[in-house]
Amino acid sequence: MTQTLPSLTTEAAALSVAGAGLRRYEMGSALIGAGADATVVILEPGDNPEASGVQDATEVLLRGDAVPALHSRFDFWEALPLHLFARLDRGCLPLGTARCRGRSFAPADFDRARLELYQPLTREMLDAVRPGPAPGPVPAVDWVDHVESDPIRALESFVLGWFPAEEAEPAGAESTVGEPDDFPEALAAFHRLARLRPAVHRFRNPVLRQPRRASGALGGNLCPGAVPQAARRGSEVYRFDRHPTRSRKWRPGTWNGPCAGVHYFGALGQNFIAAPRDGPR
């Protein structure tokens, strides 16, 4: 059953809840009224996790220039209530009361506070105060059809289709591990695509931007990626099929294993989870 929004009120009426002796302050985009009876916070709608505003159904963030005079108002044990509103086109939407769950420690540095609503926002209220971006075109998934038969083609289709186009990154200095012609096809393809879509490097389990040679007992082997969760030699290449199995290692000048390596698909697996869902921009 669809729920309707609570009745809107004017900004003046919202601030009057603070009581006598009203003093107005600003923290980022939020307007804060401090009075004898309460503290009123009027928020701007938006979907910016770094700015003042509603973060989710229960959490609200205040962030901006320091306002030392408000430090004592945002205390977990503060007796005066915190009333929250959101400024919409036709008036201010009451969000309910909240308590402070965290703040800057020193009064002189009071430039942020984390508030928790006593009553979670309904989906309709959350959509009104934290509107999401307009949906873009849905990225294609036809790359899945080529994973088994042509992994390189699948890689190209996925990266180019699911990550936004940016200014291509320069190739940089010459590689210290050999010319691109010496790389396995999957490694060369990945780095070529990463220059076109730099976002593939911005997630966990990244393939190294600059592959390097191993030293010591593994000297001469190529280490194309790093896996933080566990130690794994980057020179070990795995067969990409339903049950990945260990394959032979690649050494300079030779390539005896299948074309796809676990590092590339491990990195892409993380990227797939967090990839932009609105497709190319």
Short description:
The protein has 5 helices and 10 strands, in the order H-E-E-E-E-E-E-E-E-H-H-H-E-E-H.
Notes on the protein architecture:
- With 281 residues, the protein is of the alpha+beta class.
- It has 2 domains: 11-129, PUA domain-like (Roll); 142-274, no CATH class.
- The protein has 5 helices and 10 strands.
- The protein has helices at residues 11-16, 123-129, 151-162, 185-196, 262-274; strands at residues 23-27, 30-34, 39-43, 53-54, 59-63, 82-88, 91-103, 112-117, 207-213, 222-225.
- It has an 8-stranded mixed beta sheet.
- Helix 3 packs parallel to helix 4.
- The protein is elongated, with a radius of gyration of 27 Å.
**Number of domains as seen in the coordinates:** 2
**How many helical stretches?**
5
Structural class, by secondary structure, is: alpha+beta
Cross-sheet strand order for the largest sheet: 1-2-3-6-7-8-5-4
Radius of gyration: 27 Å
Described by the principal axes of the CA atoms, the overall outline is elongated
> Which H/E pattern describes the elements?
HEEEEEEEEHHHEEH
Q: What level of helicity do the residues show? A: 10-25%
Mean pLDDT: 76
Largest sheet at a glance? 8 strands, mixed
Distance between the termini: 36 Å
The stretches of 5 or more residues where confidence is low (pLDDT under 50) are: 173-179, 228-263, 277-281
- Percentage of residues in DSSP E strands: 15-25%
The count of strands amounts to 10
